[in-house]
Amino acid sequence: MTSDSRVPQTMRGDGRHPRIGASCAYRVVPVQRRGRETVAGILAAAREISRTVYAGDLLMKDVAEQSGLADGAVYRYFRNDDALRRALAAQALELYCDAMTALIAQGTCARWQDVVLLHITLRVDSYCRGEGPAAIPDRLRAEANESQVIAEFLGGVIRARDVDLQVPADLDHRIELSVRISDALVIHAFSTRPSQRRIVLAECRSVVEQILAR
Questions:
Q1: Claim to verify: residue 105 and residue 63 sit in the same structural domain
Q2: For residue 112, which of 36, 56, 175, 33 has the smallest C-alpha distance?
């Protein structure tokens, strides 16, 4: 099963995702293989719909139609539309961490700052695939402390790569600030004309480089 359709493996038994810290409100947490595959299919359909529809407008009935399931099959696992959106937000963070780990494993990071700059690359790639931040409602992004979660993840990766690597004492703060600013600038880049996009993204990298070098 591909990562795009995978249900998060770190989901706790009470239906709360540890990286988000917000209840996904599962009616039934899938344990058996068939149930996990059903939920994976539901989330895959939700992700596909969110490419063209803002996730805040994502409805369970549309997801059921997209996945080829009866409405009741979706309601078996999710209490309501908002519960499904929460699960989608949880999976989006999980997929982000997987993708970032794969990029870092390619060994292209000569400096700890390069790990943070990869975040911009990943965000741009996501936008090009139609999977930008609009795939998660702003309210859930804030509730999930997404920037903080990503900053903690990247900080952990940096520290784990080389315990002797010289990093600033305020590493986590710099990373979180970089993530917030870069996300805002990437969003701005993709809201401008294509001819201006490269200029904005170059400015984005320049600003982040300055933050990381302070």
A1: no
A2: 175
